[in-house]
Design goal:
It contains 35 helices and 17 strands. It is α/β, with parallel strands linked by helices.
Length: 730
């Protein structure tokens, strides 16, 4: 490798190998520094062109560049891209566990012959002695450590194998190292350099600002409906949905497909060949959406991803930044939506319990930053850039986040913080958020009475505000650094040194209004189907259809469809059997038995009255085969008492009865005679049956008035109505 590489030579190489005449950002400086034999550290946002910074020097240098990459799928993608720029496929290879012995032999032969300029190696493969010995025998031009944040315990995707890289590289040969990452806080940056023994490396750090991306955090309510509606409003655009679990990935992918969206799942539990085919389908635009765990996307070179959705809150801001950075890499539109509910943070906190103290502390701090970001009312771009050590000029803000487009109201919260901190201290820092909120609001439940805290002088000190308000104050006080959650003791609140100082010398603390993501907004679109007004003309028409069918069948109208089902039809306007089955109280059985006349009537009405149907509200759901309803049906078939079914599922008898009513109302036939015969006299059963057969309404209240004086509870009457509907309607 020569030290007198001139600018024109590098530019010629760019044109020769990649067909570009101009470099992007600081690419040229980076490449020159590496070709001159210097260690190089590149921190460049996703889409900034990091790959070129080691690919071009590799093509221009003697020998083979060894590129350490964390994902097999990423290697294949990178190798395919390089081969696309060259005449010979042998110019780039990868070495990982997906190859057979004969394939590995062919790769090593090409490298030995000097035909391979880039060799991508998985960190696990690099630790094998036979591969170390092989690399010692070849001419290595330099080492490239891609996704270098994986080396740091403070990074969002820590890989223990990366910690061994320094020792292995030094054992092979001392050559220049280029480390590259899209995300690195100052702490992570220092950790990477220290662990690779490259403290003297020249650091090239680009701005983290992705001005074309729009950041938004939404409350996690009616999330499936919201996502389907969003994707359908961005028809034929590519997007990625990130979920934390494999199970959720599969569920969401199935939901999208059911609703006519071309989508595929991607997670580590799938066969390697399946993952590769799903990734290729996304790159080739055979599908529009990939639903994935965080494993997907590292280095995926698809420039036109138009949206990134986080179904679950990410574990860290670095992870969030990296994943959202996969949108709009071509400089075009990039919408980043994250769904947030604080209970998801609590779930992630539980996963930290039992881990080594250091790992637990790191995880806790990363989650705190994530909560801070989600709940903050300040510019999200400003918060992201500040997290990565970069100042942001708010005067240049382009309203590229929900907080800037829709500013949240703030209020002086010093008095509330003081009440909270004093309470935590008075109660000896032994209780969790829920207990503290209950105590401050004066809720005398049994747990508080057991501790005799209902007699404490501070009990109910903040009762003018509700539980949710105080829970939000606790969260924001933690974000401000006055309180800390002790994960070791499952979330006990403790004062920090900063909190102690606040009590000695209170200062102004601005808290945010209307950021309770656990509350469904009154006018929220997601809730509109529940609050929408039924089309009265259509409702009357459907009642006529019902009356006609009921007369033909010789049954009361409510046996066909109950009023709530007709009202929902008059809101949703279903015109297919699939859509009808999404209506409340309409299952497959009822739709098949009675549905045809209703959807025909609705379709005619919609056409004649030029109705704009709210199709986005009709979201098909996958059947949960392991759900409560199946459990109830199976146990009724086994003649298990209803109280036992309730107890086994941790439900009340009333809960189970409501589920049974819903099962029967949607068209499923069940036999409860084994249970009813023990509690309702046979003659009385016949009388009630005859009553419902003649009744104009299925009202329980009216039925109870009719049988006033009988030894019959309201629940017993509900059971009899279930029996009647099951036998007559289903």
């Amino acid at each position: 490798m020569t030290t007198d590489v001139v600018e024109s030579t590098i530019t010629e190489g760019l044109k020769k190998y990649f067909g570009f005449s101009k470099f992007k950002g600081r690419q040229e400086e980076i490449i020159r520094n590496l070709l001159e034999g210097n260690d190089t550290f590149v921190i460049m946002p996703t889409g900034g062109g990091k790959s070129l910074c080691y690919q071009l020097p590799a093509l221009m240098s003697e020998g083979t560049a060894v590129v350490v990459s964390p994902l097999i799928a990423l290697m294949k993608n990178q190798v395919d891209a390089i081969r696309g720029h060259a005449e010979e496929d042998k110019i780039a290879h990868y070495l990982n566990s997906s190859l057979t012995k004969s394939q590995i032999s062919l790769v090593k032969a090409d490298v030995k012959e000097g035909k391979t300029k880039l060799l991508y190696v998985a960190p696990e493969s690099l630790t094998k002695n036979e591969n170390i010995e092989f690399l010692k025998s070849i001419n290595v031009s330099f080492f490239a450590i891609d996704e270098a944040h994986c080396i740091s315990e403070w990074g969002h995707d820590f890989r223990p194998e990366y910690r061994r890289l320094k020792t292995i590289i030094e054992d092979i040969t001392r050559r220049p190292i280029i480390a590259l990452t899209a995300t690195a806080t100052p702490k992570v940056q220092q950790d990477i350099q220290k662990n690779l023994n490259m403290m003297d490396a020249k650091v090239f750090k680009d701005s983290f600002n992705r001005s074309n991306l729009y950041y938004e955090v939404r409350p996690k309510h009616d999330i499936n409906k919201d996502i389907v509606r969003f994707i359908k409003s961005h028809e034929d655009k590519s997007g990625v949905i990130y979920c934390l679990s494999r199970k959720k990935v599969e569920e969401v992918a199935e939901l999208l497909v059911l609703n006519g969206i071309k989508a595929l799942p991607y997670h580590a539990g799938l066969e390697a060949a399946t993952r590769a085919s799903h990734q290729d389908a996304f790159l080739m635009e055979d599908v529009n959406v990939i639903v994935a765990t965080i494993a997907f996307g590292m280095g995926i070179d698809k420039p036109d991803v138009r949206f990134v959705i986080h179904y679950d809150i990410p574990k860290s801001l670095e992870g969030y930044y990296q994943e959202t950075g996969r949108a709009g890499r071509d400089g075009g539109e990039g919408v980043c939506i994250t769904y947030y509910a604080y209970k998801d943070i609590e779930k992630l906190e539980k996963f930290l319990v039992g881990k080594p103290i250091a790992e637990m502390e790191i995880g806790k701090q990363l989650l705190t930053e994530m909560v801070n970001f989600a709940e903050s009312a300040v510019c999200r771009r400003k918060m992201l850039l500040r997290y990565f050590g970069e100042a942001y000029n708010e005067n240049k803000c382009n309203n590229g986040c929900d907080n800037c487009r829709h500013p949240k109201e703030k209020f002086e919260g010093s008095q509330y913080v003081q009440i909270l901190l004093e309470t935590v201290k008075e109660l000896k820092e032994k209780f969790k958020s829920k207990y503290i909120s209950d105590f401050i609001t004066g809720m005398p439940h049994q747990d508080i009475k057991d501790h005799r805290h209902h007699t404490h002088e501070k009990f109910g000190a903040g009762k003018e505000k509700d539980f949710k308000f105080w829970n939000a104050v606790i969260r924001q006080t933690c974000v401000h650094g006055f309180l800390d959650k002790d994960i070791e003791s499952y979330g006990t609140l403790k004062l920090t040194e900063q909190g102690e100082q606040f009590l000695l010398n209170p200062i102004s603390v601005m808290l945010t209004q209307n950021h309770d993501y656990d509350k469904i907004p009154e006018n929220n679109e997601e809730n509109s189907s529940k609050t929408a007004v039924a089309d009265e003309a259509l409702l009357n028409l459907l009642k006529d259809v019902r009356k006609k069918i009921a007369k033909e069948k010789g049954v009361p109208p409510f046996v066909v469809f109950q009023d709530p089902s007709l009202q929902d039809m008059a809101i949703q306007y279903p015109i297919t059997m699939d859509e009808l089955q999404q209506i409340a109280g309409v299952g497959q059985g009822k739709a098949a038995k009675f549905g045809k006349a209703f959807i025909e009537a609705i379709a005619t009405y919609v056409k004649e009255n030029d109705i704009d149907r709210p199709q986005d509200l009709v979201i098909k759901s996958a059947v949960n085969k392991s759900g409560l309803k199946v459990y109830i049906i199976q146990n009724i078939d086994r003649k298990v008492p209803l109280q036992d079914i309730a107890k086994a599922k941790g439900k009340t008898y009333t809960d189970i009865l409501a589920e049974i009513e819903a099962i029967v109302a949607s068209g499923t036939k069940i036999d409860l005679n084994y249970y009813i015969d023990d509690i309702v006299d046979e003659d009385l059963q016949e009388e009630i049956f005859d009553y419902f057969n003649e009744a104009e309404t299925d009202s329980i209240e009216t039925a109870m008035e009719e049988f006033d004086g009988e030894e019959l509870s309201e629940d017993d009457m509900r059971l009899m109505r279930v029996k009647f509907l099951s036998e007559v309607a289903n």
